[in-house]
Specification:
A seven-stranded parallel beta sheet has the order 3-2-1-4-5-6-7, sandwiched between helices. A six-stranded parallel beta sheet has the order 10-9-8-11-12-13, with helices on both faces. 40% of the residues are buried. The termini are far apart. 45% of the residues lie in helices and 14% in strands. It has two domains: 217 residues, Glycogen Phosphorylase B (Rossmann fold), CATH 3.40.50.2000; 177 residues, Rossmann fold (3-Layer(aba) Sandwich). By secondary structure, it is an alpha/beta fold. Strand 9, helix 12 and strand 10 form a beta-alpha-beta unit.
Length: 480
């Protein structure tokens, strides 16, 4: 019998203590464009801070967007927001939604409808097609050069007035902003200049040093200049800057040598033990008779998983046992990029794509798996400054982990935790060996590797939130 299903994690005393909490706690305005019911890894960090800040003496007042253009939705995450926490939402104009609509119009135009094969397009249809393509070109031009630092800049004007109203009405003592999207930091910068309140800027990912940002600057020097100017202003005017890795901190210190080192803190991502309080369930998501390797979350478009799939193909061709028992599960990963390879190499019964699922369901997939794996873009910027949020959930599971990455932060954490092995994503023989070793360990019943429990526990979200609250306390006391 399986023993996993979701358990509620709400604070049962929240409603009764609402008045006392409102009176006793200082309030922080949390600016987060990515927030439930939006889903995906980008919402987890801010959501967990909001969940645990009241226990650390701070009452969040959340300001987010009401009509985001975001493909991932997980309303179940709203259940983790304490009932006494106010969440305000303001509208925006989503240019990305407009761009997709334009793409859809072009696709229908290029499809040709029911016109007989070989028949020329009517003049009106040709004119309409030219107009739509011109519209698409214009939209691309605007997005590259005008929507700086990102399309979500359209949210800032309305959100500015809404935030000022919340600050005045709620008696906010401090501002906390989370990015990406980086427009959230622009909003916080404006609020800082208007109100003078202490402000902590939290960067879940690097800004101008990100891989995709650098690619965008190659096609628009103006965009690069503006984004660097925004970043400099944030570094100059934020009272404190929080990043997720030590390498990112070092990168900012080298880039902005006049900014005091004490202005930066590192608070990594982590896991919430309450997420793993899974009650009995009889419905198994995975076949317990198979050796299940699972990846949760999306695989970056810039990552090439072909060597991994080729290694899987060679393994099952060489070993009938592996062909019978190996199952590779991609939970939440978009289909399409490798469908042809999988089909042409007969991997349909070995590899399965599972669409986006609620967060609790993704954790059940991890719990029912025998080994876990992740993919990281094998470039210096990614390996040294980025840590996948799912890595920390993997650590909590205390199961064997295979990381396809180059040496960097991920490999350091896996080595120190005792749970993982890392292989270069292009090293097909190395991937084969790692997969075979994991399978043999499972087949022979050896269980998971010994883990460094003390080290893993440092990534508890509640402990990380206490560190953040400590920064809040320091800034509030300094202002008082």
């Amino acid at each position: 019998m399986r023993t996993y299903s979701a358990v509620a994690t709400l604070d049962e005393s929240g409603e009764h203590s609402q008045t006392a909490i409102g009176c006793a706690m200082r309030k922080v305005l949390v600016l987060a464009y990515r927030f439930p019911p939006q889903g995906g890894g980008g919402v987890q960090r801010t959501l967990k801070f909001v969940k645990y800040l009241p226990a650390a003496g701070w009452l969040p007042v959340v300001h987010t967007v009401s009509n985001p253009d975001w493909p991932l939705s997980d309303p179940t995450l709203l259940g983790e927001v304490p009932p006494f926490v106010k969440v305000s939402r303001s509208r925006t104009f989503e240019f990305e939604r407009l761009a997709r609509t334009t793409d859809g119009l072009l696709a229908r135009e290029e499809d040709g409808g029911a016109r007989p094969a070989g028949a020329p397009k009517p003049r009106t249809e040709r004119r309409g097609g030219v107009a739509r393509r011109a519209l698409k070109a214009l939209a691309g031009l605007v997005q590259r050069h005008a929507l700086v630092p990102d399309p979500q800049i359209a949210w800032v004007p309305g959100a500015l007035f809404k935030s000022l109203s919340l600050i005045r009405r709620e008696g906010v003592s401090l501002i906390y902003s989370s990015s990406p999207p980086n427009s959230g930091q622009v909003l916080a910068l404006l609020l800082k200049r208007v109100t003078g309140l202490p402000w902590i800027a939290d960067f879940r990912d690097p800004w101008t040093e990100g891989i995709r940002r650098k690619q965008a600057y190659e096609t628009s020097r103006v965009r690069g200049w503006l984004e660097h100017a925004f970043e400099r202003a944030v570094m100059a005017h934020a009272d404190h800057v929080v990043v997720t890795t030590e390498k990112t901190r070092e990168q900012y210190l080298a880039k902005y040598p006049t900014v005091p080192a004490a202005k930066f803190s590192v608070i990594t991502n982590g896991f919430d033990p309450a997420d793993f309080a899974l009650a009995p369930s009889t419905d198994g998501l995975l076949d317990a008779r198979q050796f299940n390797m699972t990846l949760t979350g999306n695989v970056e478009a810039m990552f090439d998983a072909t060597p991994f799939f080729a290694a899987v193909k060679e393994l099952i061709d060489e070993d009938d046992d592996l062909r019978t028992h190996l199952r590779v599960n991609f939970v939440g990963t978009k289909r399409g990029k490798y469908d042809r390879f999988i089909r042409e190499h007969g991997l349909e019964s070995t590899v399965q794509y599972i669409g986006y699922v609620p967060h609790q369901t993704s954790l059940r997939y991890l719990a029912e798996s025998d080994a876990l794996f992740l993919c990281q873009i094998p470039v210096y910027e990614s390996a040294t400054t980025k840590l996948s949020g799912k890595l920390f959930e993997y650590l909590y599971m205390r199961k064997p982990i295979l990381a396809l990455t180059i040496p960097g932060l991920t490999t350091d954490i896996l080595s120190r935790s005792g749970l993982g092995v890392a292989v270069d994503p292009d090293d097909r023989p190395g991937i084969k060996k790692a997969l075979r070793d994991l399978y043999v360990r499972w087949r022979d019943g050896h269980g998971g590797p010994p883990a460094d429990e003390t080290y893993i526990e440092t990534f508890d979200r509640s402990l990380q939130t206490k560190r953040l609250a400590g920064l809040f306390d320091r800034l509030a006391e300094r202002r008082a």
